[in-house]
Amino acid sequence: MTAIAQQKTGQNQKGQSKRPTRWLRNLNAKIASIPMILVALVVFLGGSVWTVVYSFTNSKLLPRLKFVGLDQYDRLWGSARWIISIENLAIYGVLSLIFSLVIGFLLAALMDQKIRFENLFRTIFLYPFALSFIVTGLVWQWVLNPELGIQSVIRSLGFTTFNFDPLYNPQLVIYGILIAGLWQGTGLVMCMMLAGLRGIDEDIWKAARVDGIPTWKTYLMIVIPMMRPVFITTLVIIASGIVKVYDLVVAQTSGGPGIASEVPAKYVYDYMFQAQNLGQGFAASTMMLVTVAIIIVPWAYLEFGGRKRG
């Protein structure tokens, strides 16, 4: 018994002696990260808390701590402009997620076939992502202009009854913005998917061919499940870009016709800097923050919670 007790005491002493050294590992790196951590806490976390607190106030031109409860949120959800912006964001978001993933994956699958001039095609597809949203919006404003763009070209070929003016149609304007967003963002999705496909072991493809599994079934049943982390990361990147979409709308339509292409980010900007109603802008910002949290929390759980269980 005495020997066992001594052995346990020795193990405890070893464990205690190891603990300080574990905390001292990479000490220089930890010290160097302190400014970044402080910036994150003060700027990001502090700014978020500040926004949420002042969303319950009656702030106008300048912030002031005059609390009005949920009045700003009642006005927000009673505003037709906000409801339209949410509907537009939902349509744009769902279609953007679906088409970006489908088109990006199909392009990546084609590029993964070791085609000739792969680098050239990859550059062409990725090039739009290097442009700002303002430039993209202006380009597609010209392309979709009925007097200058696609409609004019096709009518000049003899199809005089052809109509394609989505940016001037309140029912279709959000789809015109969607076209520009897909043109710019699909190349990035393609590159991420291509990186995931290149990470698949060649032996898996050989085994699938030996077993006589069709190519489409190999992608659907084997490759895509193995690329789950790539899909999750891509979804988060696309979704975070969808929530804050602003430049594209301003450059193409400025929210028009009327308020038909309004989006939440533009609503926030207009109320904070043009209408000089900070309380209403803070309330809208808080709802956007909640939307981002709804996206980030499940992703963090799937990524880090799944790894812990593994």
Automatic annotation (TrEMBL):
Domain ABC transmembrane type-1: 86-301
The keyword Transport belongs to this UniProt entry's keyword annotation: yes
Annotated transmembrane regions: 31-56, 89-111, 123-143, 172-197, 218-243, 282-302
Any single biological process term in GO: transmembrane transport
Residue runs in coiled coils: none
UniProt-annotated location(s): Cell membrane
Membrane topology: Multi-pass membrane protein
Gene Ontology CC: one annotated term: plasma membrane
Entry keywords, A to Z: Cell membrane, Membrane, Transmembrane, Transmembrane helix, Transport
SUPFAM superfamilies documented for this protein: MetI-like
Family: Belongs to the binding-protein-dependent transport system permease family.
Protein known as: Sugar ABC transporter permease
Annotated organism of origin: Allorhizobium taibaishanense
